[in-house]
Amino acid sequence: MNSTFQEFSEFEVKDFAIKFPGEEKHSICGAIGSCEETLDAKTIKKKYKGIESKTRTCGTGTGELKLSLHMNYQKYLEIYGMKDEELKDGVYAYGQDSMHPVFSVTEKVTDEDGAVKFKAYPNCTVKRRNYQKGRKWRRRCRRD
C-alpha cells in the first residue's frame, strides 16, 4: 500500500497532544478543531558578474501554527506559563514573569474524505502578536 498522498487538504484536527521537556510521552489535550500551518522559506540567489545564474528556495525550519480548538485547561495554563505556586488553588496569573516554555506538538489530521495524516512539531513556543483589531495568539513552532 502506497502511503504517499497525491492530494490532501487538511480539514479537521482529530487529536492534539503536547509534551513538555522531562515528560515521558505526549498527553492528548485537544479535541476537534482546525489548524492553519504557515512555513517560512528563504530564497538564495547566486550571481555571476551581476547576473543571476541560479535561484533556490528552501525552508528555514520555522513557521507558525494557528490553532482553533478546544483543549485541556491545565495544559493551556502550562503553555502560557500561568501556573504560580504562590497563588491559591484555582487562581492563575499572566504577566511579565510568565515564561512560555518550549514544548512539542503532535496532531492527527483528517481531510474531507476521511484520510488520516500525522504531524509533529518538536520545538514550539507560544508567540504573541498584536493586531490593530484586538489580539490574536499564535503558537510559534520550529521543526528541527
How is this structure best described in words?
With 144 residues, the chain is mainly β. Helix content is 5%, strand content 59%. The protein contains one helix and six strands, in the order βββαβββ. β4 (103-111) and β5 form a beta hairpin. The longest helix is centred in the middle third of the chain and has 7 residues, at 73-79. The chain is extended and about 70 Å long. Mean pLDDT is 78; it is low at 130-137.
State the separation between the terminal residues, measured CA to CA: 29 Å
Count every helix, treating DSSP H or I runs of 4 or more residues as helices.
1
In terms of DSSP E residues, the strand content is over 45%
- The percent range for helix content is under 10%
Shape: extended
What is the gyration radius calculated from CA atoms?
Answer: 19 Å
Q: Which stretches are low in confidence, meaning pLDDT under 50 for 5 or more residues running? A: 130-137
Identify the strand order in the major beta sheet.
1-2-3-6-5-4
List how many beta strands DSSP finds. Answer: 6
- Order of helices and strands, N to C? EEEHEEE
Query: What structural class is derived from the secondary structure elements?
Result: mainly beta
Largest sheet: 6 strands, antiparallel, barrel
Average pLDDT figure: 78
